[in-house]
Amino acid sequence: MHIAFRQNIVATIFRARRVICLTLALSWSGCALITHHVGETCNTRAYVRTDIAGFIDQRFKGGTTARMAVVPFVTQANFTAQNSELPGISDQLAWGVHRELLAYDTLPIIEVFNRQDWPGKKDDFFTGNFGALSLARDAGYDLILIGYMDRIVRLDTWVIHTKIIDVDSGTTLWYGTSTVKTRQPDLYEVSGTFGLTSQRPDMLYISPMIHEASSCIARDIMVDPELE
User: Using CA atoms, how far apart are residues 147 and 75, in angstroms rounded to an integer?
Assistant: First the structure.
């Protein structure tokens, strides 16, 4: 009787362990699936919107090729590049938007204009962009894309302002604000509690947020959501 009782206890423990392991496995796979599909979201509100493709067709004729510069974005000091081997978020956003815009095959020439800083660059975005326009004009660009990231107050949210300006006239062709959010800290808080991942909810998820921001900005520039 005593032996049978011990056998039942052992069997119950093994069944409980299997249930716990299965629950954790399903929880982890579910978190991975959710992270892959809905880890980041982005919404862009455009205040000025011009049909970029139509503008280029009308503005540049007779064999003239439009050249657009993408300037490293203005970010808070600790997110700015230290050197070419340690790029900051400012560079990575410019590279990401450059890459995404090229995929639309609308603008003939898009280049990253690697001007990290100049006097008054931070204020220039909201006070006429005269410095950016002067530098772009001297370098022979027709259009310039500049961006400004608000100071980060939450690790899971970025707010980024972006403009495209016609260098010759100084006219803003597109101006929008993108809000990028990540849900990964919430997801990893659960998995981290069970020791299933070394990632922590207080970490900055820079790479996926840059990817989402770049895709979101380029998509809204090239595709009017009201016409989709």
Answer: 9
